[in-house]
Design a protein that fits this description.
The protein has a two-stranded antiparallel ribbon. Helix 11 packs antiparallel against helix 12, helix 13 runs parallel beside helix 15 and helix 15 packs antiparallel against helix 16. The two termini are 38 Å apart. The chain folds into four domains: 69 residues, 434 Repressor (Amino-terminal Domain) (Orthogonal Bundle), CATH 1.10.260; 59 residues; 201 residues, no CATH class; 50 residues, no CATH class. A hairpin with a 2-residue loop joins strand 1 and strand 2. It is mainly alpha-helical and 425 residues long.
Length: 425
C-alpha cells in the first residue's frame, strides 16, 4: 500500500473507532451497523465506498462531506525553500492580481505551514480565502475566513480584512441576514470611531457596499410593507459607499475604487426605481446607455471596470423583471443577460453567471406563464459545463439549474426527469 493509502486508512480507522466509542457499541455491533464483517470492519486499502462512509458519518452525527474531506484530507505542503513568510505573502498577492488561483492556493498553504504567529496564520487564511474566491468556490472561501477569525491576538488591520471578507462571502452565497449583520458590525464600529488609515477607509467603504447590497437583495423577499424601508436603507448605504470609494480613487489614483463606486451607482438606481425616485423605464434606459460603453469588451479599461459593467447588466435585469412586462421586458432582458454572460465568461466570474442564468430563467418563466408553452433552452456542452459549475458553487441555484438542464433535454436520452428540483430515473 502506498504512503498516501496508509495515511488514509489510518484516518478511517480513527473515525470508525471514534464512532464505536461515541455510540457505545461493541465491535460486532459496530460491524453490523457499518455492514461489514467483524474481522474486517475497515477496508484494508483505505478506499471506502460512499455508502460505508455515509454510515460512519451517521454513526458520528457528522455531515457526510466533513467526514469525506477529513479522510481524504490533503496534507499542508511543507515549505522548505528560502523564501520568508513575507516573501510568500508577496507572491500570493502577485498571483491574486494575475488571477492565478491554483498558484495562490499553493502559496497560501505554504504560508499556513510556516506561519509562526497568530497574525501570520490569519493572513495565510485570508490569502487562501482569496484563492478560493478566484475559483468561484465561495463556500470554501467562507470557511477559510472563518478559520482566520478563530485566531486570537491577531493585529487589528488583518482582523478588519477578515471581518470585511466574511461579510462579502456571506453576501455572495446569499446569506443575506448574516451579510447585513456582519457588515453592520463594521459600519457601527466606524460610527463610534471614524476610519483614519487607508485600510480602515477601505474597510468602511466595503462594509457599506456589502450591507447596502444585501439590503437591496432583501427587497425581493421582504413583506410589501417593508420594501420601501429596505430600499431606503440600501440606497443610503450605497450612496455613502460610493462617496467613500470616489474619495479613495481621488486620493490614491486607483481605478479599482472608481470601478466599485461605479457599481454602487447601478445598485442605487435599482433602489431609486423601487422607490419611484426615478421612473423604472428611465432607470433602465440609463443602464442600456451605460452598457453601450462596454459594447467592445477589449476597450474597457481593466478587469475591475469590466466586472462593474457586468453588475450594471445584472442591475438592468433586476429593474426590468421588477417593473416591466411584455415586449419591453424581453427586449431589455435580452440585452442585459447577453452582456452579463459575455462579461462573466471573459472574467470566469461564477457569481455573475449565477445571476445571469437565474435572471434568464425568470424571464422564460414569464413567457411560459403568459403563453402556457415551455421555452426550450439550447445548450452546447460548454453551456452544460457552466450550468453544472454554477450549481456546484451555489446551493440555492441548484433547483434552477436542474430546470434549465431539463428544459434543454440534456438527460432526454437517459430517461431522466425532473421532479421539484430533484431528479429521478
Amino acid at each position: 500500500m502506498s504512503v498516501v493509502g496508509s495515511m488514509r486508512k489510518a484516518r478511517l480507522d480513527r473515525f470508525v473507532e471514534l464512532a464505536r466509542v461515541y455510540r457505545g457499541w461493541s465491535r460486532s455491533q459496530l460491524a453490523d451497523r457499518l455492514g461489514r464483517d467483524p474481522s474486517r470492519v475497515v477496508p484494508e486499502t483505505g478506499n471506502a465506498k460512499l455508502d460505508y462512509v455515509s454510515r460512519v458519518a451517521d454513526a458520528l452525527d457528522w455531515r457526510l462531506g466533513d467526514v469525506v474531506e477529513s479522510i481524504w484530507l490533503e496534507e499542508l505542503p511543507t515549505h522548505e525553500g528560502e523564501a520568508s513568510f513575507e516573501e510568500l505573502d508577496e507572491e500570493a498577492q502577485t498571483a491574486h492580481r494575475s488571477g492565478d488561483a491554483p498558484r495562490m492556493l499553493e502559496i497560501a498553504r505554504q504560508m499556513r505551514g510556516c506561519a509562526a504567529t497568530a497574525t501570520e496564520r490569519a493572513i495565510a487564511a485570508n490569502r487562501e480565502a482569496g484563492a478560493w474566491d478566484l475559483r468561484g468556490r465561495y463556500g470554501r472561501s467562507l470557511e477559510a475566513v472563518q478559520l482566520g477569525l478563530t485566531e486570537e491576538g491577531v493585529c487589528e488591520d488583518v482582523r478588519l480584512m477578515l471581518h470585511a471578507n466574511l461579510a462579502n462571502a456571506h453576501y455572495t452565497l446569499w446569506h443575506l441576514i448574516e451579510a447585513r449583520s456582519v457588515a453592520g458590525d463594521l459600519v457601527d464600529r466606524f460610527t463610534v470611531r471614524p476610519a483614519t488609515s487607508r485600510i480602515e477607509q477601505i474597510g468602511e467603504a466595503f462594509a457599506l457596499y456589502v450591507r447596502g447590497s444585501a439590503l437591496r437583495r432583501s427587497m425581493a423577499h421582504a413583506p410589501p410593507a417593508s420594501r420601501d424601508e429596505f430600499a431606503t436603507r440600501a440606497r443610503k448605504d450605497l450612496q455613502r459607499s460610493r462617496d467613500r470609494y470616489e474619495s479613495l480613487a481621488d486620493a490614491w489614483h486607483d481605478q479599482q475604487y472608481a470601478a466599485i463606486a461605479h457599481t454602487c451607482r447601478v445598485a442605487m438606481l435599482e433602489c431609486e426605481a423601487a422607490l419611484h425616485v426615478i421612473d423604472p423605464a428611465d432607470a433602465l434606459q440609463l443602464v442600456i446607455e451605460r452598457l453601450g460603453d462596454a459594447s467592445d469588451l477589449a476597450a474597457v479599461p481593466s478587469g475591475d471596470w469590466l466586472e462593474s459593467f457586468g453588475w450594471w447588466a445584472i442591475g438592468g435585469c433586476n429593474i426590468a423583471l421588477e417593473h416591466l412586462d411584455g415586449h419591453e421586458l424581453h427586449r431589455a432582458m435580452a440585452v442585459c443577460t447577453n452582456k452579463a454572460l459575455e462579461i462573466a465568461d471573459r472574467l470566469d466570474h461564477w457569481a455573475m453567471r449565477e445571476r445571469a442564468f437565474t435572471m434568464e430563467r425568470f424571464r422564460r418563466q414569464c413567457v411560459e406563464d403568459s403563453t402556457g408553452y415551455e421555452t426550450e433552452w439550447l445548450l452546447d456542452d460548454e453551456d452544460v459545463r457552466i450550468v453544472a459549475g454554477t450549481m456546484a458553487r451555489f446551493p440555492r441555484f441548484r433547483p434552477t439549474g436542474w430546470r434549465i438542464l431539463e428544459s434543454a433535454r440534456v438527460f432526454a436520452d437517459l430517461g431522466v426527469h425532473a421532479v421539484h428540483g430533484m431528479y429521478r430515473a
